[in-house]
Design brief:
This is HTH-like domain-containing protein. The protein is mainly alpha-helical. Helices cover 69% and strands 0% of the residues. The protein has three helices and no strands. Helix 2 packs across helix 3.
Amino acid sequence: MGRADEARLVADMIELTRQYGRYGYRRIAALLRDAGWQVNDKRVERLWRREG
């Protein structure tokens, strides 16, 4: 897993946020892991802040 898949990860992140509304980055990170992503909370938080 490198930075090449980051756009896809962000797209999935945004999709989950639309689906679940007011979930925080930790809950979204857990959902991403359930979906098969190998991400930690820090990476999701960094992208979360960057995307607003």
